[in-house]
Amino acid sequence: MSSYNQALEQDERAKLLSPSRNRLVLALCAFVVGVLIAGFWNYHWVDGFGREIVAGQTIGDTQRLSDSYSERGAGFGFIFAIIAGLAATFTACNCVVFAMLPGLACATEKAGSPRRLAIEAIGVFSLFVLLVCFGYGLYVGSLGPERVDALNARDSRILQAQVTFTLLGIVLLVWGLISFGFADGMLRRLSPGVVRFGASPLTKAVFMGILVGLFAIGRPFPVFRDFLAYAAASESPLYGGAVMALQGIGQILLMVLLFLALIVPFSKRLTNWSARHPGRLEQFSSAALVAGGAYFVFYWGVAFAYDVGRWGFKLDWYS
């Protein structure tokens, strides 16, 4: 029997050892944590750090730079792209990237060579982030200055964020609940081949990469929108795709480095710990997905629509 099939059987045994009630409590706790983080999120501080420190201390005022393509040229757009991605690292539309870390870690410990699989999984994940960003960049590069202004208008970009991140949040919630085992009855109706394909570590890495790549479509962050204006000024779909892909590298760079720093040196320890505590890492991964999904759904889908968020501001905790 292959090590991967053994890992699948181990997951099934872990679910039997973990009563449904305990998993339900953990899922509810993760949901509450995601909502609380979203409700108390200080976007002024986080967005300001990206705009004033990451971008401001490197390339300067991005709003002023957004209409300087004719002056600075195509080369500067590649620098603008990586800075825009890095500046968005901890924004409300990107922080859920870090909820993907436990899922990738969980996937890579399910094989005989976790270190090698970790490299493959993070490579596949990154590749699909770049592919999705490249596709969106083709569209942005075809817009031109006038049409990108309409795309970047406040009402338009907020609507894009609400729709995109609410839908992504629902996907993360469903994925988390499936990972917890709450949909096992439904999964048994599928063919074993489909289930094995969906449970494959590299399949999960592909899916995570697509989800994170889609973050760019909804991102309302001003620095990112200034970058879109710069890219669209080229009126070249290919150029737009290239710089948008580079922006994708910037937005996941810290997460990728953190993943490699944690997984590669400690892969054997992770495997040994997982063997001693079957199902723990899977549960942690599931909880992270539920928390990330709850964050997105509450922050973008509920708080904006009904003004029930921003608790820290309403309590005057933030200046």
Describe this structure in words.
- The structure is a single chain.
- With 319 residues, the protein is mostly helical.
- It has helices at 3-17, 20-39, 43-55, 62-65, 69-87, 100-108, 114-141, 144-152, 154-180, 184-187, 192-199, 201-213, 215-218, 222-232, 237-263, 267-276, 280-306, 311-314.
- Helix 6 (100-108) runs antiparallel to helix 17 and helix 7 (114-141) runs antiparallel to helix 15 (237-263).
- The radius of gyration is 21 Å and the shape is globular.
Features:
mainly alpha
User: What sort of overall outline do the alpha carbons produce when their principal axes are compared?
Assistant: globular
SS field, number of helical segments: 18
Q: Mean pLDDT, as a whole number? A: 85
| Category from helices, strands and their pairing | mainly alpha
Residue stretches low in confidence (pLDDT < 50, at least 5 long) are none
Radius of gyration, in Å, reads 21 Å
For the secondary structure, the number of strands is 0
The main β sheet shows up as: none
* Strand coverage percent: under 5%
Brief write-up:
The protein is mainly alpha-helical and 319 residues long.
Furnish the topology, listing elements before pairings.
Blueprint: H1 3-17, H2 20-39, H3 43-55, H4 62-65, H5 69-87, H6 100-108, H7 114-141, H8 144-152, H9 154-180, H10 184-187, H11 192-199, H12 201-213, H13 215-218, H14 222-232, H15 237-263, H16 267-276, H17 280-306, H18 311-314
